[in-house]
Amino acid sequence: MPTRVTAHGVIGELFVQLTFNCQTIETFCQSTHIIYNITMLSVVIQAGGQSSRMGEDKALKPFLGKPLITRVIERMSPIADELIVTTNRPADYAFLNQRLATDLKPGRGALGGLYTAIASASHEYVAVVACDMPFASKSFFESALRLIVEEEADVVIAKTEEGYEPLHALYRRETCLPAIETAINEDKWKVIAWFPQVNVRELSPDELKSFDPSGLCFWNVNTPEEFEKAEYLVRQSD
Q: What is the helix (H) or strand (E) element at residue 175, kind and residue range?
């Protein structure tokens, strides 16, 4: 049975083992029955869209009484070791009290936005979510995180009838960032133009059903009518 120890005791013993006995952190944790987990997750919410069909900034549009982006943040916060919002209008989003990141590749569209999201993250695994997804799913990313680690993938992404869903997907920062930068330097614009350079784990329809039983996590609201429908669905599920 694992021994109950204080944090100071663990830290002191860890120092001794690492310094004098040349143990790794993993070996030490195994020998002391401590679970060692290095899968830290950055969640990046992108708020850079034009919202042309909505007629106003949909990220800030009230959704059931609070800005839509606040709902997305609340849904993702439980799994985030770090949470970042990307926007070129940081003053408009200061009220969120979150870390804000501006465009690192101005004028490069969705691909540049994805680069900014991944480059701004501190951790190895980066969940990228659009600000207009009221049903963004933390269970999806929990399952995707397990897959990306176990299968040593670089991207875990769904492919629906609409195509790939890069704005609700999980990325490995170390491998994806240079691949995206190369695509930008080669004047490529398609947001998945760099996929042939990395190990993409595409989710099967059955996996998607288990990851997101509602089937709504990829739905982004673009019009006032879609906005109202999403609010209605949330009320019905409460």
A: helix 173-185
